[in-house]
């Protein structure tokens, strides 16, 4: 079997051990004579998988007791609407800091469900950094401040958590469980699982239970957090395959030292790659200010768009896949999620040096 190095922004690399174990169990789940994805989601086999995955999510992500985990379909995108429909159900204003494409999409959808306000917008500066707390003009009494903690397309992350006196709501999709979250600042943390955590097909949401009290969102049952909370994320048929793989990835993470180990591995991978970029005498360039650089989505430019195209194509042939930047911004991007081994980054850095030598 040949596995390439997959630098795609998501879905992306999963631990090979998890894929192999899933393959082993796929056709006949633990002697049941059928697959887990063929059986009732209300039976004992799935029940055990579901409970273990949600419990592990809280354990690995170090989630405090006053938060509840929810496994929901619709990806992170549905959460843009859902969080506003729920958290603004009793009125109030949702504040948004626009650090890139995903924060912008979040406010656009939220505006259909409640009153929103943009308190910071980095677009005039081509989204090169995250704001400091003192730049965020959030009025007291604002229901929440929504942040995208790591912008997947622009490669910008918050290295300092905003502390603005109102609860934070965070989209952590592209750095899910790659670093700890200061839970005391948050009412809700969410993300799609298809980058760092599982096979595509769902979002994981962690919501402060008290934040849902007394709300009567005027939306259908699937869109209400309280409905999913009361049903332990079994209100309807859950995304069984995704939850199944999630449990396996979380066990893999826990066995490797959990969140602290994921965080230091992320820093090591990113340090190696930024080192290569910064050490190239400006041949490779990262447009993001050093204080806001993402550890999981490293964006970089080459001297010309033609060289970038050639770089991506030659890298692909060398077994380094998914290095093209998002079509909206161009350039190159290497996504380095939890399951990316260090030798993948070493191979990329070696390729970058050889490519520069041949074309510089
Ligand atoms: N937020 C961020 C930061 C993302 O990177 C993405 C997907 N790339 C999304 C939201 C949307 O996720 P989904 O496809 O799960 O709806």
Would you mind describing this structure in some detail?
This protein is an alpha/beta fold and about 350 residues long. About 35% of the residues lie in helices and about 15% in strands. It has nine helices and 13 strands. It has helices at about 15-25, 45-60, 75-85, 100-110, 225-230, 240-255, 260-280, 305-315, 340-360, and strands spanning about 5, 65-70, 95-100, 115-120, 145-150, 150, 155, 170, 185-190, 205-210, 295-300, 320, 330-335. The strands form four sheets. A seven-stranded mixed sheet has the order 2-10-9-8-5-3-4, sandwiched between helices. A two-stranded parallel sheet has the order 1-12. A two-stranded antiparallel sheet has the order 6-7. Strand 3, helix 4 and strand 4 (about 115-120) form a beta-alpha-beta unit. Bound molecules: 4'-deoxy-4'-aminopyridoxal-5'-phosphate (PMP). The site of 4'-deoxy-4'-aminopyridoxal-5'-phosphate has 11 residues, from helix 3.
């Amino acid at each position: 079997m040949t596995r390439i190095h997959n630098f795609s922004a998501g879905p992306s690399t999963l631990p090979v051990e998890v894929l192999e174990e899933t393959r082993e169990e796929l056709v006949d789940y633990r002697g049941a004579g059928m697959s887990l994805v063929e059986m009732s989601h209300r039976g004992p086999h799935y029940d055990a998988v579901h409970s273990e995955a949600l419990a592990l999510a809280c354990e690995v992500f170090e989630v405090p007791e006053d938060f509840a985990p929810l496994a929901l379909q619709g990806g992170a995108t549905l959460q843009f609407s859902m969080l506003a429909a729920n958290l603004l159900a009793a009125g109030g204003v949702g504040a948004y800091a626009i650090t890139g494409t995903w924060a912008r999409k979040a406010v656009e959808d939220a505006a259909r469900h409640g009153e929103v306000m943009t308190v910071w917008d980095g677009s005039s500066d081509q989204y090169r950094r995250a704001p400091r707390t003192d730049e965020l003009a959030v009025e007291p009494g604002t229901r929440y401040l929504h942040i995208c903690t790591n912008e997947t397309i622009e490669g910008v992350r918050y290295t300092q958590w905003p502390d603005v006196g109102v609860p934070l709501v965070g989209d952590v999709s592209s750095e899910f469980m790659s670093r700890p979250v200061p839970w005391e600042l948050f009412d809700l943390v969410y993300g799609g699982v298809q980058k760092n955590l599982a096979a595509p097909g769902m979002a994981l949401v962690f919501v402060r239970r008290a934040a849902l009290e007394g709300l009567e969102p005027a939306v259908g049952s699937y869109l209400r957090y309280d409905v999913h909370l009361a049903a332990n994320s079994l209100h309807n048929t859950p995304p069984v395959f995704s939850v199944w793989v999630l449990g396996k990835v979380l066990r893999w993470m826990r066995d490797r030292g959990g969140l602290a180990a994921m965080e230091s591995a992320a820093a090591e991978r990113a340090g190696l790659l930024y080192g290569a970029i910064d050490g190239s005498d400006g041949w490779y360039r990262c447009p993001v200010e050093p204080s806001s650089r993402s550890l999981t989505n490293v964006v970089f430019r080459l001297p010309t768009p033609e060289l970038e195209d050639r770089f991506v194509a030659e890298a692909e042939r060398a077994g380094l896949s998914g290095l093209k930047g998002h079509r909206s911004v161009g350039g190159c991007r290497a996504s380095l999620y939890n399951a990316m081994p260090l030798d993948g980054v070493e191979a990329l850095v070696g390729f970058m040096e050889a490519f520069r030598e041949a074309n510089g």
